[in-house]
Amino acid sequence: MSFLLSKLSDKKGVDEVIKSTEDIILVLRFGREHDSTCLQLDDILAKCEAELSKMAKIYTVEIDSVPVYCRYFDITLIPATIFFFNGQHMKVDWGTPDHTKFIGSFCSKQDFIDVIETLYRGAMRGKVMVPSPLDPASIPKYDLLFKDI
Predict the structure, then answer these.
(1) What are phi and psi for residue 41, nearest 5 degrees?
(2) 97/22 Cα distance (integer angstroms)
(3) What is the C-alpha to C-alpha distance for residues 7 and 10, in angstroms, rounded to an integer?
């Protein structure tokens, strides 16, 4: 279903979309087009795109084409979904150590809709971090590993 979603193929395109999207949530799905979990997430995103058109714009980004953003957002697990509002990175308290992105696929279409609605309401009130509307059992758990350089 990723063919139904808009694609960004380079850093310049990602930069332009982040800067130019105003008054709606920008959803960037970082991953690989042929990964099974990415395909599952893309299916959910594609089904929601029309319903959320007044609140969100959804793009897919191939991680191999934008290594700068992969390093900047520390994308090591895919798919990673990142949210913006008026150029501001929006964060969600998922109950995990990382609030900057959602790792994995949403369990259902309604879960994704709930997240977008919560982000949109919070952004319209000037917040950059909102609490997760999802049941903690439906949020993938993972451990962060830190390396000393």
Answers:
(1) -65, -40
(2) 29
(3) 10
11 phi, psi to nearest 5 deg: -60, -40
Entry pTM = 0.87
Contact indicator for 103, 80 with CB cutoff of 8 Å: yes
pLDDT tens for each residue of the chain, 149 residues long: 456 788 988 899 999 999 999 999 999 999 988 888 889 999 999 999 999 999 999 999 999 889 898 888 888 888 999 999 999 999 998 887 778 888 888 888 999 999 999 999 999 999 999 998 888 777 776 655 555 55
DSSP state string for 10-70: SHHHHHHHHHH--SSEEEEEEE-TT-HHHHHHHHHHHHHHTTTTTTEEEEEEEGGG-HHHH
